[in-house]
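QA checklist item 7 of 12: single-chain prediction sanity check.
[x] sequence parsed
[x] length recorded as 338
[x] structure emitted
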Amino acid sequence: MKTVICLMSLISCGIILTGHINSYSDSHQKSEMREVTLLLDWEQNVDHVPLYVAQESKIFAKHGLKVELLWGNDPDAPLKLVAAGKYPFAVSYQQSVTIARASEEELPVKSIGLLVEHPLNTISFLKKSGIKTPADFKGKKIGYTVAPLDVLLFNAIAANAGLTKDDYELINVGTNIVAPLMSGQIDAVIGPFRNYEINLLKLEGAEADYFALEKHGIPDYYELVIITNDTYLKEHPETAKKLMMAIQEAIQFTKKNPEKALQLFFQANPKASKELEKLAFRDTLDLFATTQVQSKEKWDAFTKFALEKGLISKAVKAEDLFVNLLEEKSSSRNVNGK
């Protein structure tokens, strides 16, 4: 799953193009329907159900949009391509946007809305390990998938539980999460997503449990956000707003009609593993965004944490990270996210 994404490559790598992806240009629009591409953060999965609901049920079309959902097999590419103006929109992560804006290059991307509003990343372990609290990591071997992000997050949680770095051993397991946990090579691993790897372990016959990061010392953050670049947002604010209106409507449909929504996802992705995706969707449904009004406090909290822990080297303003295009009457936050 998306746990293999190397967020820090945003700092060290330049803007890259993938050969099989064609560039986007507004000048090629010849119909009344606005044609745009939304790059996915990962291969098609149930995290994207509302997007496929909007596509398959013509919610995008209702809002005057013809949206291509595209995955290019490179998890680092979407944010960079949007930052470079090659594409207008992408699904990304709050951490990625924060790192991008705080990097030396200061990639000009910002979040314009939400898809999944809480972390999916976990510290997972088998129940037979005897781990009950983070303090039980003492003397254990801990796997991780993404450096330095996962290492930083785990160390923060361990310190919050009263442990030092000498109390446990960290082992890079790369993309291989399930096998070393099942074999006993490691006692726990940070990186599995609560909706996917946990269910994959169950399907393998293992009883697993996990700690949600936001409940053990890590600021709650938005897992999946919709991003655009500063120039596109300035030149095409109505297109961006229409996209978020459609996604908001599709999320509401998904929550009210989960069985139909999942059916539409499988209709668009017939090769998807139904057994795993059904379980994953069950565990994702409550995490889809309940609002499109992003919290300045939530962005500030993670930025402060990232700066304190050394994930980023400079402070960044919340207004550079996100903008609220949709306003809710019940919210006290304004449309600029300030």
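[x] summary fact logged: The chain has two domains: 2-118+221-321, 121-215.
[ ] second reviewer sign-off
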